[in-house]
Amino acid sequence: MHFADGVVPGDxxxxxxxxxLWILGGTVLLFLLLIVSISVGAVNIPPHEVFLSLANGVxxxxxLLLNPGTTIDITxxxxxxxxxxxxxxxxxxVAGVGLSVxxxxxxxxxxxxxxxxxxxxxxxxxxxxxxxxxxxxxAGTMQSSVADAVTxxxxxxxxxxxxxFCLLATAVILLISRIRGTSPEVMVLAGVALSSLxxxxxxxxxxxxxxxxxxxxVFWTFGDVGRANWxxxxxxxxxxxxxxxxxxxxxxxxxxxxxGDETAKGLxxxxxxxxxxxxxxxxxxxxxxxxxxxxxxxxxxxxPHMVRRLIGDDQRYLxxxxxxAGGILLLASDTVARIIVAPYVLPVxxxxxxxxxxxxxxxxLRGYRR
Amino acid sequence: xxxxxxxxxxxxRSSPVIQDITFDLRPHQILTILGPNGVGKTTLLxxxxxxxxxxxxxxxxEGVDLLTADRMEIARKVGYVPQRCEAGRMTVFDAVLLGRxxxxxxxxxxxxxxxxxxxxxxxxxxDLALRYxxxxxxxxxxxxxxxxxxxxxPRVLLLDEPTSSLDLKNQLDILGIVxxxxxxxxxxxxxxxxxxxxxxxxxxxxxxxxxxxxxxAGGPGVVTAEVIEAVYGVPVxxxxxxxxxVVVPLESGSA
Lengths: 370, 255
Description:
Chain A has 370 residues and is mostly helical. Chain A is built from 14 helices and 2 strands. In chain A, a hairpin with a 7-residue loop joins strand 1 and strand 2.
């Protein structure tokens, strides 16, 4: 069959360009937000100084790489920016991108609008893992009633155990779907069941925990993007980046699955394999982020839906759009969490819901954008 | 021969659904699979693009065995229009563009866009090109689904009850499109149908299934009153009206 006489329709190109502009605009907004986020805090640093410090820092690090031995003068402002605020802001962006992209992929491959790392029990499995490490393995305790005094003595043990349980939850979901045949309903329902099971397990452990252990577990459960150091940030960024590339490479397959399993198979997509591998990748990203930062709900569920309402369901734009939206929501939440009741810092997970839920409900009420 | 089906059988949980199905098809031909509900029409159709794997037999398209070909290769040879397709928040143009999936490397080329534009025009969907498919009527959505299968540039088009949810005008439109495509583009089409009169009007080859096997097969001449009564269990007469053969049931169903 040949369609030799087709032309490229201008209005379609215009329509596509508009979607790209949304994503570009979001990226610019994210960058501006990054500057603002770094500039505000206990010590206010004017935005232009933040920008200069970031630019100089990058140049200095490159020159240090080229000629080792060069001396760099570092001001106290630089220290605040590079040691505290920048890693925290970048962790917020990376975690937002990772959770959001995992959510968008899960919603597509499970053909379910409620798909997210949280709904599928991965976050709760991580929380259970943290409870096990603190209560049974003695990895944490609390010194006083101020939140900052809570210490996880052995953060690596907590991270590893949380990560282990995240993967365990994923493995069980995949195993069940292997036995019953890969069907989205089975995966979703198995995830919901596991989620309840891990929540119950956490409550059971908490019931027998001492006050200090209990506080440490609760503290861990409040996700916090300030926990990550540069090295952990690197691991999260690497995993998130690789997963995002994988999802973008599969955008046509997800579009096809959105049109129905049979249509997708007719279009040459190995639906079962795409579904299984996609689940593993999405779960891995979620597991890495949850185990380093704690439970941060809402981002993975809601950011993709916000983007759907702005630029539609086409995965070519939905996936990058969700990444940007996830970064914006989590970075904005973290910034507000640090300044709203300063000098106290609210848990970022509270703010993602405070900021995200009204926005989301507004978008739900307004319906799709034309 | 463009399509060669030889001894195909399919078994669902150890009970046979269809058995010993053998037929072939040339370009420009439209084959209709007829038979009562649950006789295995859709199963047979799905065996022809390996959505279901036959337990026995072979399906060759232009000499290529579908059962050893990979999914992408099959999708470049066979276009499949399922009974239902999901309607998400996607424009008509993008939904049709999805049909280029088997040909797309990393991203769509200008050629892909041109092909989609031509198919959209061919199915008179230009005015709807930027509408979202979840806002379309059943007939319009069916046209999108067919356009999507066409831009796969297949050699064989499989359609599962393409007219089942359509009004009279849309039924005639859709089947007219299928006939144009097969005559003008060197393609063969296989469809399942319930409407015997529409089948007689548009198809030139027929397979009537009964109890999972071929009861009768051939040109329009095989669709006789006796065969229809044997397959559907309803006495009918086949008459000629204005040059069309029409099937008229002779009794009302038992309520």
